[in-house]
Amino acid sequence: MPATKDRTSRKQAASRPSRPFTLWREVLAAYVAPALMAGIPGVVTEQQDLAVAACTSIAGTSAVVAFLVGTWLRHGGQPRRWTATMPRLALTAALVIIAAGTAALLGWFTAQWLPAHTAIPTTAWLERLRIDLPVSAALATTIVTLRWRSATASAT
Fold first, then answer.
1. Cα(14)–Cα(37) distance, rounded to whole angstroms?
2. Most buried one in 16, 59, 115, 122, CB count within 10 A?
């Protein structure tokens, strides 16, 4: 019996409403996904510092950034006109640059300035923040912005 293609499945999937943007769900996913994706390799390869960073600086940064960006995008349930009309990739790129730049400055401040001006010693986990914070911020911002735009586009 020959296999037949279901030609209506694409049309049905396109007409199906997407899941609404729910901030707590996005924040939870922004924490759990990086914690698992970085934590499991840390445990398997017995890199304790990676396993700890996965649940703290990597996943924590993702959750905080997802909350801040999602809250800003929602703007009390009324999106700003320019965020809803700006091209999706341009909006995402602008927000990623802002979030990753801010996180990179925070990572630099924590790794460089704090040990130089306080009694906190320079440690390997402080140096990790220079990479962990901006990468986590960029990924969380990208995912939340794209999810928000797809939810607002389907709602209109």
1. 30
2. 59
Given a contact cutoff of 8 angstroms between Cβ atoms, the answer to whether 53 and 38 are in contact is yes
Over the Cα atoms of the chain, what is R_g?
Answer: 19
The number of residues making up the chain comes to 156
Classify burial at 45, counting beta carbons within 10 Å of its beta carbon; exposed 0-12, middle 13-18, buried 19 or more. Answer: exposed
Q: Measure the CA–CA gap between 30 and 62, rounded to whole angstroms.
A: 5
For residues 148 and 117, give the distance between their C-alpha atoms in angstroms, rounded to a whole number: 40
What the block records as the tokens of 24 is 């707590």
Q: How many CB atoms lie within 10 A of CB 129?
A: 22
Q: What six digits make up the tokens of 112?
A: 């460089």
The string of pLDDT tens digits covering residues 58-95 is 999 999 999 999 999 988 667 788 888 889 999 999 99
